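Hello forum,

I keep getting stuck at the same step: I have a sequence, I want structure tokens, and every attempt I make locally crashes halfway through. Rather than fight my setup again tonight, could one of you with a working pipeline run this one for me? It's a single chain of 117 residues.
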Amino acid sequence: MGAVLFHPIADGDQDEIYRWTAENWGEGQAVAYLTGLHAHLQLLAQSPGLWRPLSSRLTVLIKTDEPIYVTRYRMHYVFFRRLPEDGLGVLRLFDVRRDMPRKLRRELIQMARDPLQ
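Reply #2:
Ran it on my machine without issues. Output:
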């Protein structure tokens, strides 16, 4: 089974998702949402054929040779990259309602080169 690791910023995104969901929908729903998210990510880690690369227009803007992938889990886009030994590294989690292109570009430029540990 492939490992799923979170960049520290993506880990903070998880905390924010939990906090917001618990405040608005209750703690049980927050736990259920993140449990489902992690199950989705485990499925992706085991099934690279499901991965969808980020648009080549965006990867050119980011100026990285390493492919970045995107998936959607319910109300969030998940941006990730391949890790050694068949794992994936989660870079960011964005709410689908957010205007993200500018922020995404700035943050992915920085994170594309950061090691995930």
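The longest strand covers residues 87-95. If your local run keeps crashing, start a new thread with the error log.
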